[in-house]
What we know:
Blueprint: E1 19-23, E2 56-61, E3 64-67, H1 68-73, H2 76-80, H3 87-91, H4 97-100, H5 104-117, H6 123-126, H7 129-135, E4 136-138, E5 143-145, E6 153-156, H8 160-171, E7 187-189, E8 195-197, E9 202-203, E10 206-210, E11 218-222, E12 226-227, E13 230-236, E14 255-263, E15 265-266, H9 267-273, E16 287-289, E17 294-295, H10 296-299, E18 303-304, E19 324-325, E20 328-334, E21 342-348, H11 356-364, E22 375-377, H12 390-393, H13 406-409, E23 417-420, E24 429-432, E25 440-448, E26 455-466
Amino acid sequence: MSFIQVPKNSHFPIQNLPYGIFSTVQNVGLEPFYSLETFSQPLLTPSPPLLQPSPRVGVAIGDQILDLSVLAAYNFFQQGLPELPHALHIFSKPTLNAYMSLGKSVWSATRKFLQHLLSADVATLRDNTDLRHRAFVPQATARMHLPADIGDYTDFYCSREHATNVGVMFRGKDNALQPNWLHLPVGYHGRASSVVVSGTDIRRPAGQRLVSKENPTPMFAPSARMDFELEMAWLVGPGNELGEPVTIDKAKDHIFGMVVMNDWSARDIQNWEYVPLGPFLGKNFGTTISPWVVTLEALEPFLVNGPAQDPKPLAYLQESGPTAYDVHLEVKIKPAEAQDFHTICRSNLKYMYWSITQQLAHHTINGCNLRTGDLGGTGTLSGPVCQFSPFLCGLDSGTDDSYGSLLELSWSGSKEISIPRSTSTPDDVIKRKFIEDGDSILMTGWCEAPDGSYRVGFGECVGKLLPWRERGHMQG
Length: 476
């Protein structure tokens, strides 16, 4: 238990401590002058506040952010964590890359040190009122930034349920899965430059799409079939050398942690362009990730067995023991004309057919080198449709609301979903097949302790769709 008060259903108890990059109006905690070059102790004479906010590293605890650059400036890490000799330099950076590159042993030691420091029975930080004022920042007053400098982004297609649903729509039940799908984690290279942090608006893209089914000729126009994709993603810690694959038993050592991800999709643009090389303009205009990176160590208590893999994977993809994580996932939508968010999807990461370690091992088996900060998306995480009562199947399945996209929920636009205009008027509904301008999409995920005593969560991944910005010279 921590001396910081943490509400029961908070995503950020002491068992979690996810990392993020944040800034404030002014760097209040760093008012005393210290030398970045010598990592000296702060001078007793305070200097004026810094004029510009500086993005820096923090961990979430309850509704607070613990500013690790402040702890480093006061030599907490130098005194208590010799594994991290240059903490001030690392935790004053505007990305997590420097820290993520240090590897599993340093991450684990840092986590144990922070949990000790935040414990209710440790007085060091608890009883130092001035230092607590400097080191803790209310999350409500902070601005969150992308947690990493993402050099490359690969998106996989690893939910059997999603791949089957899409295959049935476009190829029929007998040819739903492509011949290779059960043998390897299918993926494609996405666009890292358009990965944005939660809270960033996304503008409706335009591109080539077909006029209609009856008139299958291309035209240039804004997408009329905007969609979300419920995904999670992993961030690479230490990379691997070019030509040196990462074996499946070492893959976890190269993954720092995970985030919730919305891979925005323009279905009509994607449908016209994807043959033969895969998605392009239908995907590369915006991908939203949650700001807090939950470490694999924090997720370790929630390891479970994933789906049975039949046929048996090739040797380089074979792994033993639990390899899936029991992460409850939800998607909510708030139409522009609605007052409240409404849940339209519930799924779970544990349903994913190919594990994150299989994804990384497959990515590197040909010698491809991953680098610190690279992002790997899971693909849309649809759950199985329960044939019985939700009470028998669990909270994350039961009806087709376990589908992780509007493409599935509306079955390619053949039916509408109903969204209450407000929680107080459930019968007054708004209809949707795809996302309309002004609609907001909110995704979240969390693990639940078996006794319900705490959650390890990811916070929110939210974005709003803005109208296409018309430019006259692009018509036609």
